[in-house]
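Dear colleague,

Thank you for sharing your sequence with our group. We've completed the structure prediction you requested, and as agreed, I am returning the results in plain text so they can be pasted directly into your records. Please verify that the sequence below matches your submission; if there's any discrepancy, let me know and we will rerun it promptly.
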Amino acid sequence: MDPFGGFVQRRWLWFALPAAVVAVFAFSPDVVAAFGLVPAVAVLVAVGSGGAIWRLRVSARNRAAASEDGFGGWLPLPTDHDHDRRIDFTAETGRLRRVARRAAAFVLVWMALAGAGAGDLVLLDKVADELLATGARTTGEVVSVQTFTRGGMTFEVRFESRTAKIDRDSKNSYTVGERVTVIYDRDDPDRVRTLVEENKSQFLVNLGYVLLVAGSLGTLFAVLAAVGWRGRARAVAATGWRNATVDIVRVFARNSRSLRRPPPEIHVRFREGTGIVLKAMSSTHGANALADFTDRLAWVGGWGRHMVVLFPNGPRRPGPYAVPAFALNLRTEGGGRR
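Please find the predicted structure tokens below.
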């Protein structure tokens, strides 16, 4: 059903890549053009969009093949035992759709954050270019130079009976006594630059890059979450929920120095004797807080990489708690045991 294996399973990338590229280009076309990235952006959008369309077609074929046998590769046939008066399963399926919409809203938030960072960098460039074009010019003399361990440099220049500190933007080196062309704003003499050094505020430059990087990464992960939850909501709506007993098994990464625990496995045992092993996904609805619990009542819905395990109570508050997961294998007789 999936001839390309794990590569195709990362289908969120085909949606996140063009979305992130288009977002950055939309908010900061000047930055893209300034760095000569227009052809690269066009290629990325074309490849990402083509991959997304292809992946949708693969998903549709896989879904049609899976539904032919009632998703029996992952779930048994429904029975009366799958119902529980304590839980409104229709409402819980709708809750999955709301989670997907909330994740989609976060895509816009992260895109706005990336746009703010890009806009900050564009504005700083425009201000520096405007000063270069309209500022008063004079000759100044470097009176002091300060270098930093990470390669940065600032130098102080004296011109017209006053001094100004300039942050180096280029790779040029400066020495005391060297003469440079100073450009300053007549109405605001504190705005100073040279022909080469734009002398931007390092705080605003760093802030712009932080917002741009954080917003871009956040957009990628939010798109991943939105696409994933939408797929799981559709899958559960198609399959319904099945009553099961589950063991949540902690997974330890071999030879890993990371302090972050990987998501646990969920060993599922259905009432008619079959079982399946699922892998919880990294999410704010994660299962790590439930790890090492055995013989827990739960309901399982979805198929393939779009599965959800619904617990009657969450780890921190009462009420149904949905954990996203994907199947590590197909349902087998006696499967899902530790």
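Summary note from our side: The chain has two domains: 6-119+207-333, 121-206.

Kind regards,
the structure core
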